[in-house]
Amino acid sequence: MIITSRFFNRSELIGFIALAAVLFVILPLSLDVFRLNLVAKYLTYAFVAIGLVLCWGYGGILSLGQGVFFGLGGYCMAMFLKLEASSVENTKIQSTPGIPDFMDWNQITSLPLFWQPFHSLTFTIAAIILVPGLFALIIGTAMFKRRVGGTYFAIITQAVAAILTILIVGQQGYTGGINGMTDLRTLRGWDIRPDHAKIILYFFEVFLLFVCIGIAQFIRLTKLGRILVAMREQEDRVRFSGYSVANFKIFAFCMAAIFAAIGGAMFALNVGFMSPSFVGIVPSIEMVIYTAVGGRMSIFGAVWGSLLVNFAKTSLSESFPQLWLFGLGALFIAVVLAFPNGLSGIWADYVQPRIDRLLASRKSKAGAWADNSVADGAPAE
Amino acid sequence: MLIGHQPKPFLLAVEALTVSFDGFKAVNNLSFYVEENEIRVIIGPNGAGKTTVLDLICGKTKATSGSIQFRGKELTKLKENQIVQTGVGRKFQTPSVFEDLTVFENLEISYPRGRTVFGSLAFQRDDAVRQRVEEVAEMIFLKDRLDTYADQLSHGQKQWLEIGMLLIQDPELLMLDEPVAGMSVSERAKTAELLNRIIKDRSVLVIEHDMKFVEDIAHKVTVLHQGQILSEGTMEKVKNDPKVIEVYLGH
User: Fold this and answer.
1) Residue B102 pairs with which residues in a beta bridge?
2) What are the pLDDT digits (tens) for B82-114?
């Protein structure tokens, strides 16, 4: 039986160990703090990509609006940090000290009501999960209960991303507008800007990433994971097996939203600001591309996809700023046409079988050696 | 009427059922009744509304007017998954199985437990599930294919798998839409044998074109034509009905 009670099968275990080794050991040892912080930034998108694996890869629900949830999580975190950075002494030159600088510039004289609870870190952490979760629940319920799906759903999520961006930019007195929330300094008095803080934040983020990988893997292995796959293929058959398809879609969409929000919150912490340029249509589509390149059926693939595409983006956009976006588009088309399962599909189809063959032939050779052990010279290792 | 003589309650009572698609009445004022443990076959020319009737009963299509009572429950007001939970199972015309899942997983999904989101998260593959899956797999001739991905099954095996997925739900009313269509002769014989075994202790509503197959299994036959009943009764009676011969059996 292929049905095992193990959490990871052999190749997944290898994937897990490889990723853990790279993120926990190799990258921190080989990169300087600046580059490591860049990796931390790339990895915030890996959270989104893991969510998309569940929602899009497994559930077949393509969301082109994950930037919305990334943004909601990021803004929740940024609001807390911004409030802390806007203490009365830090802002005493403002006409109203004690409120964020952009409010002061927009002639707002007291902290708006919805900002008040973000003085509390506990509330903020809850909000990072609950605000995007509830928002996804509302969108999901409104759409999936009415059986809106496929392309229509994708377009609606894109519209939501556009609306939220416009809202954030337009309400600059409350949100910091197009510049976003900048100059974030401390987390409960702990300065997040110096190098050692960046390293700690990096490790904390990688830890959270593995927690999310664990949750996603758990969901994948339950019956719910199999129902998602079933639903993607034969929605009606699932429905006529007694399941409410809409509820399962809502669940997958909410999980993807929560993962994205955690990524957004980590973005605000690691990068030190949050702006609407990570919320709109283009970043949302980029997030889908990371997932597609890594492999939308593979949790680990999604992480690699986020890392590699972002590495490429940084290095290529420095040398060819004009061409980079075309390159990204071309990459997406190429992946969809030639490698629908992305890098992880290439690995599973071409690399893995070779490794297996190599191991198998070694094993049989080793067996042969063991049989006539004293025959001649030691085998070359 | 004699006191104390109650008419036997029907398992399924379809009354004055009408559905119209942009003015076209695919099913028009249709009434029929299915008793417990009855095998009813619906036949009729193409476009007679046979599949639409099944769609209406299982909730896939919403009725314009009329009622469908199953064990006294009004099905027209329920959602598809609720209808399944009251005990109505439906097989589609083209085999619809989950090709990216194994035979075991296909059957397991249909096992009637843990059907809510959190129920399915907490679902455990225990001995009861394994046993039932193996039992059903044996019935549908797929016992040694449990770990095979469904996309590697033949057309006939997919049809059996879907029948198995319905069996594991243990519905009181089983609706089959052309279960032997596209099957080889030997598969057909095996399917007839399978159906004869599984129709015990439940009512079955079958759409079929293969008249020999219909004769083999039907207790009662309903002939549909243009969304209405043309004739109803035993196979013998229907076969000799001049109206039926004219529109359906004659050619």
Assistant:
1) B149
2) 999 999 999 988 888 999 999 999 999 999 999
- Say if the Cβ atoms of A229 and B90 lie within 8 Å: no
| Secondary structure of residue B229 in the 3-state scheme | strand
Classified as helix, coil or strand, A354 is helix
Residues 6+ apart with CB under 8 A from B243: B230, B231
C-alpha A93/C-alpha B216 separation (Å) is 93
- B183/chain A closest Cα distance in angstroms: 21
Query: A66: distance to nearest CA of chain B, Å?
Result: 22
Helix/strand/coil for A190: strand
Q: In this structure, what DSSP letter does residue B102 have?
A: B
- What ipTM was estimated for this complex? 0.89
Do B92 and A236 make contact, defined as CB atoms within 8 angstroms? yes
Task: Tell me if residue A6 falls in helix, strand or coil.
Answer: coil
Chain A residues near residue B96 by CB distance under 8 angstroms: 234, 236-237
**Residues whose CB falls within 8 Å of the CB of residue B211, separated by 6 or more in sequence, listed in order:** B43, B249
- Put the strands of the sheet holding B203-207 in their side by side order: B88-91, B173-177, B203-207, B39-43, B220-225, B228-233
CA distances from A91 to A96, A101, A113, A114 (A): 8, 7, 20, 20
Tens of pLDDT along B157-184?
Answer: 999 999 999 999 999 999 999 888 888 8
The token duo for B133 is 């899956």
Q: pTM for this structure?
A: 0.90
Phi, psi of B132 (to 5 degrees): -65, -40
Tokens of B99: 């090709």
What SS3 class is residue A274?
Answer: strand
Contact B115 A243 (CB under 8 A): yes
Burial code of A305-329, b = ≥16 C-beta within 10 A, e = fewer?
Answer: bbbebbeebeeeeeeeeeebeeebe
Candidate from B117, B165, B169 with C-beta closest to A224: B117
Do the Cβ atoms of A230 and B117 come within 8 Å? no
The answer to whether A72 and A264 have CB atoms below 8 angstroms apart is yes
